[in-house]
Design goal:
This protein is an alpha/beta fold. The protein contains 13 helices and nine strands. The protein has helices spanning about 5-20, 30-40, 50-65, 75-95, 95-110, 115-120, 125-140, 150-175, 180-195, 205, 210-220, 230-265, 280-290, and strands at about 275, 290-295, 305-310, 325-330, 345, 350, 370-375, 380-385, 405. Strands 2-1-3-7-4 form a five-stranded mixed sheet, with helices on one face. A two-stranded antiparallel sheet has the order 5-6. A two-stranded antiparallel sheet has the order 8-9.
Length: about 400
């Protein structure tokens, strides 16, 4: 607005820093380029600052390749792109593009819970009744064999589709308004990345759309012609659901922390080495409690070692917890049986990774996490062959067939 060149270069520098913070920051280049073209109607010196994030990406790739990072020393940016491509191809082959699109809508509507409620205000009754029915029908057709369709997924998918439709409707009504289309493209681009380009959908991939989702929903409320009371109810219901989910996530983390503290108190002192498998918050708490992460490439289990094996985690390869290899000391299960799940495959919830569940959260009773604690009776190695992560390529939902134990 001020036509100050220095501010343009400052924006380019911030875009470069955004990329170095998160790869998705590179999406600012096409977004700001489109915004500039809509404003100026032609390329010009205003576009030169966009060279900064592109240069940052190129230097990052070249330097990490020079240092030998990434698979076969390809560099971290290219390595990430290849990883995403491999997994996307495998996921598409297993579940189909329509299933990925469906999960994308479910996560968009579920992560922005107010969208489903505001949609009831923003559209005529026949639109949202038809939309909900269509969402239910498409869900049954697309996700058969992948997930159990229920009212949750239909409502979330309808909310996600409605949010995208509201953004496009605003853009069409605004004509070629650069500021409005900045919002619309921001919304559509983030959804495209989360649903179709990223290797898995999750809450954090949808998070960059939060500011513009709020703007779109505010515009929808203002132009709906409904009273303020109805708008407050819709937004309040969305906020209430979000708060309930946040509390469930907080309690899940608390249960993991409490379980680790109990296990460490009972079994760490008597362990030759206090091993554990798994990642996420469980890894953080185990490290803090004196546990040691098991490296399948270099580590081996020795007689007298204790290993903690979580049920709801990734990169977990349970050895035979039975003689002559190991003896089970304890299986700890939290007493609480949560009714709102954020990460529970049985309940279909996968807020942090959609390959664990097709919903960002699920209002269903689910079994709580359990933690096996076992002591080694002899020395052995855990040979897993080709890595099976449940969080990337090669995931199948089943233990890897080449996993075996080898006695020393």
């Amino acid at each position: 607005d001020r036509q100050q060149t220095s501010l343009g270069w400052a924006a380019g520098a911030l875009a470069a820093l955004a990329f170095l913070t998160k790869y998705f920051g590179l999406a600012l280049v096409p977004l700001l380029l489109a915004h500039g073209l809509l404003r100026e109607r032609r390329l010009g010196a205003w576009a030169l600052p966009l060279v900064l994030p592109l240069a940052a990406a190129a230097l990052y790739q070249l330097s990490t390749a020079k240092l030998g990072y990434g698979e076969d020393g390809t560099g971290l940016l290219l390595d990430a792109a290849l990883y995403v491509t491999r997994f996307a191809e495998e996921a598409t082959a297993d579940h189909g593009r329509l299933a990925r699109a469906w999960v994308g809508l479910v996560f968009l509507g579920g992560c922005f819970t107010a969208s489903s409620f505001v949609s009831l205000l923003a559209w005529p009754r026949w639109v949202w009744v038809t939309g909900l029915a269509t969402a239910a029908g498409l869900g049954l057709a697309i996700t058969t064999g992948l997930a159990v369709l229920d009212l949750q997924s239909a409502a979330m998918a309808f909310g996600g589709a409605s949010l995208l439709a509201l953004a496009v409707r605003w853009g069409i009504r605004a004509g070629w308004n650069a500021e409005v289309w900045l919002v619309v493209l921001w919304m559509l681009g983030t959804h495209l990345f989360a649903a179709h380009l990223n290797w898995v959908n999750n809450g954090r991939s949808n998070l960059p759309a939060a500011p513009v989702a709020g703007i779109v929903l505010a515009w929808a409320v203002e132009t709906s012609g409904r009273g303020r009371a109805a708008a407050r109810v819709a937004v309040g219901l969305g906020a209430a659901v979000a708060l309930v989910v946040a509390i469930a996530d907080y309690r899940w983390a608390g249960d993991v922390r409490s379980a680790v503290e109990q296990i460490a108190e009972r079994h760490r002192a008597g362990a030759r080495t206090f091993w554990y498998q798994g990642h996420w918050g469980f890894q953080y708490y185990m490290d803090r409690a004196g546990g040691r992460a098991f490296d399948f490439d270099t580590d081996r289990v020795s007689r007298g070692d204790v290993m903690v094996i979580p049920s709801n985690n990734v990169d977990v390869y349970p050895p035979h917890v039975e003689p002559p290899w190991m003896t089970l000391l304890e299986t700890l299960t939290p007493d609480r049986r949560p009714w709102v799940q954020v990460m529970n495959s049985d309940a279909g919830a996968g807020f942090y990774a959609s390959n664990h569940g097709r919903l960002p959260f699920s209002i269903l009773p689910g079994d709580p996490d359990s933690f096996q604690v076992a002591r080694a009776l002899q020395n052995f190695r855990i040979n897993i062959g080709k890595a099976y992560h449940r969080q990337g390529p090669e995931s199948s939902g089943k233990p890897h067939p080449r996993k075996r134990l080898r006695s020393d």
